[in-house]
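for the writeup, i need someone to sanity check this before i put it in the appendix. the sequnce is what the collaborator sent (i think, or maybe the updated version? ugh). structure was predicted straight from it, no edits. if anything looks off just tell me and ill rerun, i have time this weekend
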Amino acid sequence: MPFSAGTEAPSIRVPPNACDCHIHILSTRFPASPHWKGQPVLDSDVAAYRRLQARLGTSRVVVVTPSTYGTDNRATLDGVAQFGPSARAVVVVDLDIADAELRAMAAQGAVGIRVNFGTPQSWGPTTAERLEAMARKVAPLGWHVQIYATGDKIVELEPVLRRLPTPLVIDHLARLPPDQGGSHPAYAVVRRLLDGGRTWMKLSGAYLNTASGPPAYADATAVAASFAAAAPERMVWGSDWPHRGEKHMPDDARLFDLLAEWVPDDRARARVLVDNPAKLYGFPE
């Protein structure tokens, strides 16, 4: 299985139209951005992901432009075109992007932008001012803004995050330090944002938020279950395939099975996998 450990299917039931809300498509047809000094581009392409999709039993997908490509969204949009109506895109853009280009990407399935505070970007450091400016730029399209940031950065950004003119999506369980989890100040910030009614959380990246490790990821599980209980109507799940930068590939079926602990109720879990993504990303209900 490309970029994934294990071969078995998930143990829990996968409802029709279940969505994997966070993957990256890379292809050697599209070179890395000149700013990128990390892992080179490998063919974690649509054909490779379809094998994982068949294993998991999901049928919808959200493709997120990785830092590898800077503001070049060709691989993402090409991937969405190959997937067809079952896919949406979250793109990365710079401040000088023209409104016409944003509208063209919307026609190709883009529904949001990602603003990354965690890894090198083609424009250099990401600032709160840039986040606000980008949110104002895409708000007229009805898009959301997805952020990737550590817990410490989320604490720093709270005033800005509260006043964004768009829905907010937080990546990977808010990247709380595993040794602190719910006691870290960012946990309270995220809970306040969730209570505000316009913030969504990606239940993803357990292997990024753990010291205890697989298969239980007990520290990440405690945080994820708490967020899911707080706002089950604004939780979505993502695999984070192809797990860029990981030396040891996680088992995606086991990552999926963590939902049995994070969201124990079958109906609530179907909401996370089907209903919530349909609302956030504009899939047919």
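Residues 147 and 285 are 26 Å apart (CA to CA). Strands lie at 19-23, 60-64, 87-91, 110-116, 144-148, 168-170, 199-203, 235-237.
thx in advance!!
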